């Protein structure tokens, strides 16, 4: 039967104060998924790349298979996916790896079926995979599908908005060699929060969106302040405060935890990006870290 292949970029969930609302696509890293349609049972043919030995091979536990099957089901196509995955993103790394695999799986299934899927259909299908791993939210799925900066106004019903951002802004990302599972990281967060702090967080999120749209780096530096998740998750990430301090002292105009962590992201101008990433890695110390310097992805998931 027919086949299709796709790439979906990694992403920065939350983007600081925008908890479960904002997501930013990362051009330089992502997952690749190929789907072959079959009349037989769904299965995983092969997984290679980052942490491939940790990716479930059982179809009912693999997010790419789940998303591919969901897209085919919703499109009323009577076939199952045989899935091949190349992981470019670490497991539990805070770079939207499960979302990227889910989105790429859904798109590859659509391509194998000869269809041109809508962004909404991809997000709905990918949400089934993402829900298994980290809960029902779209802040990584939306930028993986759309690229750029996404705002999730609502999950049910789905309402996602693409927001403007400066093309020249870059990302320095450092992933210390530890794992932080999304569900565990969400467990340290309170269900209820004081009104004064909620108001400040809302103000930071709104002004950060304006900083993206206007290219105002000074405003971004004042606004990219997460009072909710960062203070509670910082202890899960070795030397987080030292890494953030190093980034801000070497050109970054914003720095925080990417999603649930342990990846730490910084917003930088191109001339500062490499040096900023270097000092962030140095600040991690002996535990070691991987680094990525990347543009913000202008486009999301795409055929390959």
Distinctive features:
single chain; 304 residues; alpha+beta; seven-stranded mixed β-sheet; four-stranded antiparallel β-sheet; 10 helices; 37% helix
Summarize the structure in words:
It is built from 10 helices and 11 strands. With about 300 residues, the chain is an alpha+beta fold.
SSE blueprint:
Blueprint: E1 3-13, E2 22-38, E3 43-49, H1 63-74, E4 80-87, H2 97-112, H3 119-134, H4 141-146, E5 149-154, E6 159-163, E7 170-176, H5 182-187, H6 195-214, H7 217-223, H8 230-233, H9 240-249, E8 255-257, E9 264-268, H10 270-284, E10 289-295, E11 302-303
Helix pairs in contact: 1-2, 1-3, 2-3, 6-7, 9-10
How would you briefly describe this protein structure?
With 304 residues, this protein is α+β, with helices and mostly antiparallel strands. Helix content is 37%, strand content 26%. The strands form two sheets. Strands 1, 2, 3, 4, 5, 6 and 11 form a seven-stranded mixed beta sheet that branches. Strands 8-9-7-10 form a four-stranded antiparallel beta sheet, covered by helices on one side.
């Amino acid at each position: 039967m027919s086949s299709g292949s796709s790439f979906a970029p990694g992403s920065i969930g939350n983007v600081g104060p925008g908890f479960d609302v904002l997501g930013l696509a990362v051009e330089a890293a992502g997952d690749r998924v190929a789907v072959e349609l079959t009349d037989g049972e769904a299965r995983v043919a092969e997984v290679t790349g980052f942490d491939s030995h940790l990716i479930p091979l059982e179809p009912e536990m693999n997010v790419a298979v789940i998303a591919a099957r969901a897209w085919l089901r919703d499109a009323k196509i009577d076939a199952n996916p045989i899935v091949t995955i190349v992981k470019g993103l670490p497991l539990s790394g805070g770079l939207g790896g499960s979302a990227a695999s889910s989105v790429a799986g859904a798109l590859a299934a659509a391509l194998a079926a000869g269809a041109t899927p809508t962004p909404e259909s991809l997000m709905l299908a990918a949400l089934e995979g993402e829900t298994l791993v980290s809960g029902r939210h779209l802040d990584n799925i939306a930028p993986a599908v759309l690229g750029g900066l996404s705002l999730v106004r609502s999950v049910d019903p789905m309402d996602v908005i693409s927001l403007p951002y400066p093309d020249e802004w870059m990302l320095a990302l450092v992933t210390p060699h530890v794992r932080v599972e999304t569900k565990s990281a969400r467990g340290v967060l309170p269900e209820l929060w004081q009104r004064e702090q909620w108001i400040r967080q809302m103000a930071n999120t709104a002004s950060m969106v304006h900083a993206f749209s206007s290219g105002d780096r000074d405003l971004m530096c004042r606004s990219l302040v997460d009072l909710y998740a960062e203070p509670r998750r910082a202890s899960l990430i070795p030397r987080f405060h030292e890494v953030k301090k190093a980034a801000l002292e070497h050109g970054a105009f914003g720095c925080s935890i990417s999603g649930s962590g342990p990846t730490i992201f910084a917003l930088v101008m191109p001339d500062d990006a490499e040096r900023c990433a270097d000092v962030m890695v140095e600040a991690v110390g002996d535990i070691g870290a991987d680094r990525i310097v990347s543009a913000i992805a202008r486009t999301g998931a795409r055929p390959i």
